[in-house]
Amino acid sequence: MTTSSTHIAALLPATAKDLVLEKRQTPSPGAGEVLIRNHVIAINPVDWKRQTWGFRISAYPAVLGADVCGIVTDVGSSVTAFKPGDRVFSLAHSFCSGNNDHGAFQDYTVTNAAATGSLPKDISFQQGATLPTAVGTACMALFDVLDLPRPSIKKHASQVDSSSEPSPLSPTSILVWGGASSAGSMTIQIARLAGLTVFATASERHHAYLRSLGASVLVDYHSPTVVEDLIAAAERAGTQISHAVDTISAPQTLAPVVQILSRSTAANKKLAHTVGWPADLPKSDNIENQWVAADDLWERRQDLSVWLYNEAMPEWLEQGDIMPARYRVIDGGLSGLQGALDELKKGVSGEKLVVEV
Ligand SMILES: NC(=O)c1ccc[n+]([C@@H]2O[C@H](COP(=O)([O-])OP(=O)(O)OC[C@H]3O[C@@H](n4cnc5c(N)ncnc54)[C@H](OP(=O)(O)O)[C@@H]3O)[C@@H](O)[C@H]2O)c1
């Protein structure tokens, strides 16, 4: 597999400036790293936030971007799980390292082998690019912040014995607020694999799709009775919502989530939020709430990263247990990234924006 000595990157020259294309040296991977020739890159809200506010940028110019999918062209000395020619998806981490070699918005990216997954042959590069941040966020929410038990990798949905009674001590019902978001649709699917009953909110046009992914109850968050409707649905199902993931985490989403958990009689109520807690929103004493930090997958929770990307995701994708998000291609390759960032900043509904490079 040949690697070009230089490649094109989309660089952010300064806070709030547009991306510009420039040539960079193509790096070699370090010991536990892989070098990927990117074929498709996905855009995340954190990318436009970093561009707009200079958030988590240590020096300019900066290479943004977290989601890549392509072909391995080189591996570091300690990497045994991947070889040149492998089709992979990977979580890029310039966000954490501050190293532009680790940014997604370029032709070649160096990433951690521990945050890389083999892409089954039936999954396209476009689909693969939608995965890394979304599944990482879902897993950090479910298995780090909420500390729920992870599902067995081999025991996929069709083998789950639905007649078995859950342990009285294990939480079985979870609310996913913002089910149609990238993080939300992955949280629904992985929560289902973990054996939880999933209640979710989304615009009505996404209900059938999110049911097909494993949500048991869907309520439109635009409804003025959304809180009452979710509580009534839990009562009808004979369950209490004990855990919640708010993938949007705005004041208007966290307030109803707190209301629902407050009115639940479950013990040990927990809430994972993907954005910092709003300063003027009161917290509830009997709900444990914590911010999800997907970037902890690189160091503190590298064990979870290896389990998720190296082991679980390739199996789940192969078996059809996890469906990649719906996506829209923004034309123009690397030149299209700025338009994609602008588009995502305006807001999307139930789709991931990707560019092909
Ligand atoms: N802390 C972390 O580690 C971490 C990681 C990843 C993401 N995040 C953050 O999490 C947020 C979500 O990211 P994402 O990429 O998953 O978002 P996204 O896919 O861009 O979110 C779009 C979706 O948000 C839904 N939505 C908007 N307002 C809503 C509301 N009031 N109630 C329920 N759903 C609503 C829309 O649902 P409908 O289509 O149904 O209207 C839409 O489909 C972003 O702020 C991002 O920066 C944090």
UniProtKB/TrEMBL annotation:
Coiled-coil region: none
A Pfam family recorded for this sequence: ADH_N
Membrane-spanning intervals of the chain: none
GO MF term list: oxidoreductase activity, acting on NAD(P)H
Limits of the Enoyl reductase (ER) domain: 14-355
Top-rank taxon: Eukaryota
UniProt entry keywords in alphabetical sequence: Oxidoreductase
UniProt-listed SUPFAM superfamilies: GroES-like, NAD(P)-binding Rossmann-fold domains
InterPro entries tied to this protein: ADH-like_C, ADH-like_N, ER, GroES-like_sf, NAD(P)-bd_dom_sf, Trans-enoyl_RdTase-like
PANTHER family (alphabetical): HYPOTHETICAL OXIDOREDUCTASE (EUROFUNG), ZINC-TYPE ALCOHOL DEHYDROGENASE-LIKE PROTEIN C2E1P3.01
Family under the similarity heading: Belongs to the zinc-containing alcohol dehydrogenase family.
Name by which UniProt lists this protein: Enoyl reductase (ER) domain-containing protein
Organism whose genome encodes this protein: Cylindrodendrum hubeiense
Lineage: Eukaryota, Fungi, Dikarya, Ascomycota, Pezizomycotina
